[in-house]
Specification:
Blueprint (H helix, E strand, L loop, with lengths): L2 H12 L2 H24 L21 E2 L1 E8 L2 E16 L8 E3 L6 E7 L8 E7 L4 E5 L3 E4 L11 E8 L2 E7 L6 E7 L7 E8 L3 E7 L3 E7 L1 E12 L2 E9 L6 H5 L4 E5 L2 E6 L3 E2 L16 H22 L3 H36 L9 H29 L2 H18 L7 H10 L32 H20 L8
Antiparallel strand pairs: 1-19, 2-12, 2-16, 3-4, 3-9, 3-15, 5-6, 5-12, 6-7, 7-8, 9-10, 10-11, 13-14, 15-18, 17-18
Helix pairs in contact: 1-5, 2-4, 2-5, 4-5, 4-6, 4-7, 5-6, 6-7, 6-9
Length: 490
């Protein structure tokens, strides 16, 4: 019998109503739970929500700072001396009962060239940070480290940005005479007149609160950064304008104690600000992963159905080619049902979230296609793995229990802040659940302080590496199934 005929015969054997219903239920779970989750994503603003900063590439970004600026033409520069950088952190651990002086690591004070004052517009900035020295950052996602020196009145830092057409160059100096180029950026299609000036901003103070069996949840508190500048020299024109980019001065600290803003005292300019300029936004933007909340339910259904079919195959003791053909049929059928489900829920779920007024991080078409096909492939591989377990162990419910323990349980519990982050990360490295990394679209940025953990949607392995781990488990399990008790095979 040819391979094609064998596969056709085994497909006919497989397509019993109970198994087709199971695959349909798994697909329906992905669609129904995903769409229900999307519908429940509702705006919580009292009245119209503030405009969300959107960068030139369509991504939702953070763009909130205090800006003292003036016009700059196609050629020109700004040079300043930063003599002090201080800040405030509100109610930090352990007691959350005091407001203390201090800077979070990525607080920023420095100089910036920006395409207007619209949040999300293009920019290049040279900044002193709270704990990482000088950095040149541009267009939200790009970051180049300069010197690691801190700043004080005894050790000020000179900063310079130079514009030549679309080219922005950032330079720093310890004495204002010998300059070192930190980096250069090309900001295509900048208008003839841009805004240049001084800025300050400070992201929230992120700490982790222990919960469950050692898991962690995020706590973020308001902070503010203050930069003191002198020797401000700008080749631009016009008068200085001082204004916030994004909303500011809404907290009690700013209202009653120290408002964000800029003050010029005989050439010494003090700029205070809060917020962040960077690729991750505090606006709660959703991603492709938010449409796949039904994946765990579908996975359980697939594992149970495939494992029981494997155990039934073992009892029949067919020839090895039949076992292999049935494994292929199980994988193909699961892949098709998964592809239909994810192909529906991903675009439909994102459309529903957008219609509810929730910002969505855009993904390239190829990225969405990778997620859709990748998740379907993961479900298919999990089904084949479960089928192999059933054949190998020959006891349906025992195989079901093992399949759920090594695949579904790690995938489910790591999605919540239950276990310590290192434990969750190792579970997603060492178990077949590593394959679910194919759904990740979130990116970890070193210049952004965030909770980069599985419970926050960050897998420890790249997508295709995780898929390779799952493939390895599946291959080993199928080989064990094919080699199980040779005397029993015909």
């Amino acid at each position: 019998m040819s391979t094609t005929e064998l596969l056709r015969r085994e497909w006919i054997t497989f397509r019993r109503p109970a198994r087709l219903i199971a695959l349909g239920a798994a697909a329906l779970a992905v669609i129904a739970v995903g769409l229900l989750s999307a519908v429940r994503n509702q705006s919580s603003c009292d009245g119209p929500c503030p405009a969300v900063p959107v960068a030139a590439d369509g991504s939702v970004v953070g763009d909130q700072f205090w800006f003292r600026h003036r016009d700059l033409g196609p050629e020109g520069s700004i040079t300043v001396r930063l003599t002090a950088m201080t800040g405030t952190i509100t109610y930090p651990p352990p007691n959350h009962d005091r407001i203390v002086p201090g800077l979070v690591p990525w607080a920023k004070a420095g100089i910036i060239v920006k395409d207007g004052v619209r949040p999300g517009s293009r920019y290049a900035a040279l900044t002193m940070t709270g704990a990482h020295g000088v950095h040149f950052q541009y267009d939200y996602k790009h970051d180049v480290a300069g010197s690691a020196a801190a700043v004080s009145q005894q050790s000020p830092r000179w900063l310079r940005l130079t514009r030549s057409g679309d080219t922005i160059t950032g330079s720093e100096s310890a004495d204002g005479r010998q300059w070192h180029t930190v980096a250069t950026a090309e900001l295509d299609r900048l208008p003839d007149t841009v805004q240049v000036g001084l800025f300050a901003t400070s992201p929230g103070d992120l700490t982790l609160s222990r919960t469950g069996l050692g898991g962690a949840t995020e706590q973020v508190r308001f902070t503010q950064a203050v930069g003191v500048f002198d020797h401000v020299a700008v080749s631009g024109t016009g008068t200085w304008i001082s204004q916030p980019i994004g909303e500011m001065n809404n907290t009690d600290w700013e209202k009653y104690h120290h408002a964000s803003g800029a003050v010029d005292d005989n050439g010494v300019v003090t700029v205070s600000g809060a917020g962040d300029i960077g690729p991750l936004s505090d606006q709660g933007a959703r991603t492709v992963e938010n449409t796949l909340s039904g994946l765990v339910v579908a996975l359980i259904i697939v594992l149970v159905a495939a494992t029981r079919y494997g155990a039934r195959t073992a009892r029949e003791a067919p020839a090895r080619p039949v076992v292999a053909a049935r494994a292929a049929v199980v994988g193909a059928a699961t892949f098709v049902s998964g592809l239909v489900a994810t192909g529906i829920v991903v675009p439909a779920g994102l459309a529903v979230i957008k219609a509810n007024g929730i910002p969505v991080q855009p993904s390239p078409v190829l990225t969405e296609l990778r997620v859709i096909v990748g998740v379907a492939a993961v479900l298919a591989l999990c089904a084949v793995l479960a089928y192999g377990l059933g054949v190998w162990l020959r006891h349906g419910w025992a195989a079901v229990l093992i399949g759920l323990s090594v695949v579904a349980v790690p995938q489910a519990i790591t999605a919540f802040p239950l276990l310590p982050d290192p434990v969750s990360e190792w579970l997603l490295r060492l178990t077949p659940a590593a394959g679910f990394a194919v759904q990740q679209t979130l990116v970890e940025y070193p210049q952004v302080t965030a909770h980069y953990a599985p419970s926050a949607g960050y897998f420890p392995l790249p997508g295709w590496t995780g898929l390779a781990v799952l493939c390895a488990y599946t291959i080993v399990t199928v080989r064990l199934a094919l080699g199980a008790k040779p005397a029993d095979w015909r």
